[in-house]
């Protein structure tokens, strides 16, 4: 792909291996004792890829393809077994647990399928939650102003005192989007962000993510739905822990064709 913007994420020969126990037991009448065998799972098998500032990327693949493992690594929720992960100017794979937590809270915004809101908290408190993880202390007037601006952006500025059980699924996901932006992160990671939503609400959420990308935010999402992935500008397909295809989405190909620009 012909992209000249700054590389903000680089994975170089990243591998992730899990060793899992497997119980091998005899039948009911067997005298053989249970034996635990180690099963090695190669979730990622040498992934190398660059993500550029301002990109909108969808990662696709069947269950077991490695897409969720890759998102977990990008979100600093897990560590690679080997290889290099550069976020901005930081070699994430070499950071301590505390440093990893700081990177996660300051530079990455998360949007999950299940929203992950705290039920006892108001909309305001949920939006501000990443600041609590940072140990930022007192909520300043600037934070209050930014919270209101984000709530207004997602259409919830009149529901700041509501709790999640007073909101629809779509409204809860809007809170999650606002929460992901409170720290002005490098990247936003969306894991099946529309998986629990109806078609109309899914479209509204995807339009919102598109506007964020138009404003310069880097978005990386995991999805198994083609119609959701087509909102992205670049689609990466995975199988058996490897990237098998990486290129512009159909709408970007169509746009390139309309403008008379070919693509590789």
From TrEMBL:
Belongs to the ABC transporter superfamily. Macrolide exporter (TC 3.A.1.122) family. One of its GO terms (molecular function) is ATP hydrolysis activity. GO terms for cellular component: membrane protein complex; plasma membrane. It holds the Pfam family ABC_tran. Residues 242-264 are annotated as: Disordered. It comes from Singulisphaera acidiphila (strain ATCC BAA-1392 / DSM 18658 / VKM B-2454 / MOB10). Keywords: ATP-binding, Nucleotide-binding, Transport. This is ABC-type antimicrobial peptide transport system, ATPase component. Residues 9-264 form the ABC transporter domain.
């Amino acid at each position: 792909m012909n992209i000249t913007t700054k590389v903000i994420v680089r994975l170089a020969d990243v591998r992730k291996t899990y060793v899992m126990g497997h119980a091998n037991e005899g039948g009911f009448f067997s005298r053989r004792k249970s034996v635990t065998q180690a099963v090695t799972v190669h979730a990622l098998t040498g992934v190398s890829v660059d993500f550029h500032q301002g990109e909108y990327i969808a990662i696709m693949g069947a269950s077991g393809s490695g897409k969720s493992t890759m998102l977990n690594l990008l979100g600093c929720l897990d560590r690679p077994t080997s290889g290099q992960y550069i976020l901005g100017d930081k070699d994430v794979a070499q950071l301590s647990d505390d440093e990893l937590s700081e990177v996660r809270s300051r530079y990455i915004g998360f949007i999950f399928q299940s929203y992950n809101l705290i039920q006892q908290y108001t909309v305001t408190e949920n939006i501000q939650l990443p600041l609590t993880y940072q140990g930022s202390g007192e909520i300043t007037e600037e934070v209050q102003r930014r919270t209101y601006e984000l709530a207004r952006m997602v259409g919830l500025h009149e529901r700041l005192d509501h709790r999640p059980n007073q909101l629809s699924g779509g409204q809860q996901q809007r809170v999650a989007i606002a929460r992901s932006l409170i720290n002005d992160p490098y990247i936003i990671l969306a894991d099946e962000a529309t998986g629990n939503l109806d078609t109309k609400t899914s479209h509204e959420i995807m339009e919102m993510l598109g506007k964020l990308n138009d404003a310069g935010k880097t978005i990386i999402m995991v999805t198994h739905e083609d119609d959701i992935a087509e909102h992205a500008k670049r689609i990466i397909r995975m199988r058996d822990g490897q990237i098998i295809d990486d290129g512009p989405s159909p709408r970007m190909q169509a746009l390139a064709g309309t403008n008379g620009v070919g693509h590789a």
